[in-house]
Write a structure and sequence with these properties.
Immunoglobulin-like; 15 helices; 19% strand; 33% helix; 10-stranded antiparallel β-sheet; homodimer
């Protein structure tokens, strides 16, 4: 194992039409607005244990930690005195509420200290602890970061001393997984092997008999829904709460990597394959049911009303895919990551950066009731506001997905334009990628540092024809191992036609329909761009389609224009035997991730199509 | 008003391929098995107030009453000493638990007498009372029936004395409507005008301010969900719990009729029109959402997963439609009644008569999660077993829908074969209808009694061509007013081709799909009849279709056979850009109401179609 590492955040500066702008708006709007909301709602004052008398929630500390983690990344990307001061003051507040023994949770300490570790299955104590660890690792080099990390390590030590199979400890597992991957991060940041061992304990003890979560929480289904019904190594299918599932699998992948555990890695790969091949929307959204925010059965992927595809789950899938790619070097993981990133993740946040979907519907129509939210409109904040705070920490890191780095090899995973300084074993390589990826397949990679290393290029799963050249030299395999001259340019051209993606007929709602995709970007029809209701359109993907500029969206955003038939029923009755007539018209599709940035309107990803082959 | 009356139960004996057999199996299996279940579960012993110590439920008396009502009808159709003895013993048990003041409810008397009338919004007291009234009216002429009716009248008197706007009474309305229509029945059976006035009170006071149900039951939404948020005369759309809604509207129609209240009738007609034109499945199912068993917004009519279409609601719709037809003489009500009867009602019960759907899905596929029941398989009984007990009382009465009778006019509403003796103002007319309706449109009506009266024939909404003749005399209008000779035969021939019914595109899930219908019967594809999964079939309704004998179903049951394309994807991946190929094959569709009588299999009503017109 140990094939690749993702580069440090500071090493890659995106300059592309998607990631760069999103990172900018995250720093400008997402993080500040989440910080303001956290303060408004009492999440920060809650750390004043004696003086805060408002309502508290059991998972508030996780939101605060996730915003802090985002702040740390933002400060890494671009220094900002005010933000640095805020980071420092928040961490000081958190540290001030640490108990003498190291325990650190504002809710349990203030409200019910006697309930500490009493209910791990539903009360998010270890989940909050995990996010504190991630925040502390992210901010360890910032002013105030050291004290914060020290405090969090003391908390981690308390947890390590409390849970385990050894004498003097009790068995226990988090009801919401997260601490596993966080402990591995803490191990990597501190070198303290105890944290890795504790992560391995949480993973390997989970679901074994006697089942300590089942004993805690009587309601049937809970243990299944949190993936604690059986040992993780016996799992073959993804089930239960989707966010928890992918967090668990990420922790498993991390432990597998650090402990060279091929068996555990195999489990992760099998679980990932189940998601990818049977339980994932074409946008990379996962967890299709609004009931329990969960995976349901294979191919149960409805597009409206009851679907879920939580933003956090799509981000969690990217995190898992990135880990599995770095361990295995298999690009199919990057295919999924790229799909989720450009579609099901970014759909969850407005271009402005401070409006959020919890549920990422693939079809919205005035006549469909939305079971999750009532109204499919992005919101500024939620009662349970995990998604906005997840964006705070996810978006600044997006540039890290572009490359993976080995000892003497660089993998270009996603050829989005950027400038980078990548540290190989023996040298640092400066690279520049130019082009408009993902909106164009014509990529130029400028190698700015001379020296011997391998450049491995991912040919995306969606790509059916490509050309690779350095000067006049062409390559049949997408791997270039050579002694580079400074300034050499790699021309990597990926054909990027509009694809009409069909779906396995077992997803019954997608029968007779197709999703338009160009490169990794999935397109949707918004009603405001059409001459009639979206639901009346039958697209003709076998007729020529063209790329035009998307009206009202950022300059350079492509739209797909093509021919459609409008289905017109002469009678306006609910049921009729009079067949419709068809009128030729034009349709316009925009990138799905950008929908509902021009007001509220109906939208559909899986549109009806007319096949020339009928 | 007062256009028509439905004939008494004893006056019509069905001899057709659908109703007759269903009535027989109801008497043979449905009523006996429900009676056994009621006894097993404690519903009968519960009337032994002092000696029964098992669990009780607040609505149990309604189930017992509904089975009793069914028994009364069964005994009217065919004497049966054992059943008569059971009827008598149950009624005696019920009467024995009546309080001195007339109050009659086994739950409240045994468990919480102090809570009597305390919570009308959710505790079903007046609902149970209504079903006792209907049972008592149905059984009034049977042995033991008089004592039962007297007891129930004393209970009704107590209710009349308790609720009203007059001094000494309190205001109150049932959370589950039913007592309104029951009180009108009681009025008609006894001539006691007080009961009609009380029904009118419950209807007219409902939803007025101050809102007495809102004051009782704080949870938001409840008052809306039980149609008590505003005065009924201000209602223009059907909403809330579907069964309650159609029971309320039926009570409103009954009061409108008895009090010549044209305004109230208008409200009923408007509400019915909203259901018919925007909120009804092609099968006559209503209440499309499993959440709250309720109406949702117009055109929100999904076919799988989250749909509901409760059996009780379809029966309630028939009841309402029958009332509105009898008042107005408008056959559009009979169109809806006939649709619901032959499809969405009878789908709820197995041919054997003792397996029941609560939810009547229009699409079932292995890969779809069913949110209501988990498994879309008919059950013998339910925790809340309203549907089986509704069938007990609905099915024996189905023959009454065939005709409506005016002073000197007979309307043939549904020309199902039967023998009848119908009482007009001045004479009793014997009629016989022959034929295989609804499976054939060739109907013969033999007038067996000489005399002058009008025969009015409904030309069903689904029928586009018909011929009417008596001997050589043909009629251009479907009304024959003449002095009949005994033995004259009316030949009524309705063209009955296979129709591909299209749906308003606002029902987004039905786009590009059609439901096959022949006459009033909606057809479905069951997977066991096809050569491939139903979901892979694209029907070609513009190609010739033929009627064949349905395999494994009762002799004479037609199936539709036609051409389909099987859609075959070369790759077995979740998403692909490789288009499918199409192979010509044959499909077989059976009457929807008979699905899942040959084992568990996938099923679909709204199938994809290929239009010749593309």
């Amino acid at each position: 194992m140990h094939a690749y590492e993702s580069p440090e955040l500071s090493c890659v500066k995106p300059a592309d039409p998607v990631l760069a702008g999103r990172i900018e708006s995250c720093m400008k709007r997402t993080i500040p607005s989440a910080a303001a909301k956290a303060a408004e709602t009492g999440r920060i004052d809650a750390f004043d244990l004696e003086h805060y008398h408002g309502e508290r929630h059991i998972y508030w500390d996780s939101d605060t930690a996730k915003i802090l983690e985002g702040m740390a990344y933002a400060l890494t990307i671009k220094p900002d005195e005010k933000l640095a001061a805020l980071f420092r003051s928040w961490t000081e507040k958190i540290v001030s509420c640490q108990c003498a023994d190291g325990y650190l949770n504002s809710y349990f300490t203030a409200v019910c200290p006697q309930d500490r570790w009493k209910n791990l299955s539903t009360r998010h104590e270890l989940y909050c602890a995990g996010h504190l660890m991630e925040a502390a690792v992210a901010g360890k080099d910032l002013p105030g970061g050291k004290a914060f990390l020290d405090a969090v390590c003391r908390y981690a030590d308390l947890i390590c001393a409390a849970f385990g199979r050894e004498k003097g400890k009790r068995r226990g597992w988090p009801g919401h997984e997260e601490i596993e991957l966080a402990l591995v991060k803490l191990y990597r940041a501190t070198g303290n092997r105890r944290y890795l061992d504790q992560a391995a304990y949480f993973i390997d003890d989970r679901g074994t008999e006697p089942n300590v979560l089942a004993a805690e929480e009587p309601p049937a289904g809970t243990v299944f829904s949190v993936q604690a019904d059986k040992p993780v190594r016996e799992m073959t299918e993804a089930y239960g709460h989707a966010v928890r599932a992918v967090y668990l699998y990420t922790g498993m992948a991390d432990v597998a990597r650090e402990t060279d555990d091929g068996e555990l890695l195999n489990v992760c790969e099998k679980l990932f394959d189940n998601i990818r091949s049977r339980k994932m929307y074409v946008t990379g959204g996962i967890g299709s049911s609004f009931q329990g925010e969960r995976f349901t059965r294979d191919f149960d992927l409805s597009n409206g009303s009851l679907m879920y595809a939580e933003s956090c789950a799509a981000m969690g899938l990217c995190q898992l895919a990135s880990r599995l790619f770095n361990i295995t070097g298999k690009y199919l993981y990057m295919d999924v990551l790229e799909t989720a990133l450009y579609n099901g993740v970014l759909s969850g946040i407005s271009l402005a950066g401070d409006d959020f979907f919890y549920t990422n519907y693939l079809e919205v129509d005035d006549n469909l009731v939305c079971y999750n939210s009532g109204s499919p409109v992005r919101q500024k904040w939620f009662g349970c506001s995990c998604c906005p705070t997840s964006f705070c920490r996810f978006i600044p890191q997006m540039g890290r997905f572009v490359y993976s780095v080995g000892e003497d090899e660089i993998s270009v995973n996603i050829p989005a334009a950027n400038t980078a300084e990548l540290r190989l074993k023996d040298r640092t390589v400066k690279l520049k990628i130019e082009g408009n990826y993902p909106y164009s397949g014509n990529v130029r990679i400028v190698v700015e540092t001379a020296g011997a290393f391998t450049l491995r290029l991912r040919v995306p799963g969606w790509c059916r024809a490509w050309r690779l050249a350095v000067g006049n030299e062409t390559f049949a395999e997408p791997v270039i191992k050579r002694n580079w001259h400074a300034g050499e340019v790699v021309a990597f051209d990926l054909d990027m036609p509009v694809d009409a993606v069909c779906c396995d007929p077992r997803v019954t709602g997608n029968s007779g329909r197709a999703a338009l995709r160009r490169g990794p970007v999935v397109y949707a029809l918004e009603e405001i761009d059409q001459s009639c209701p979206v639901r009346e359109l039958v697209l003709c993907p076998d007729r020529p389609m063209s790329i035009v500029s998307a009206p009202g969206l950022p300059a350079g955003t492509p739209a797909i224009r093509g021919t459609a038939l409008r289905e017109i029923f002469p009678e306006k009755t609910l049921y009729t035997v009079t067949p419709p007539r068809y009128e030729e018209t034009v349709f316009t599709a925009i990138p799905y991730a950008l929908w509902q940035n021009r007001g509220k309107t109906n939208m559909c990803v899986w549109n009806r199509i007319l096949r020339a082959a009928y």
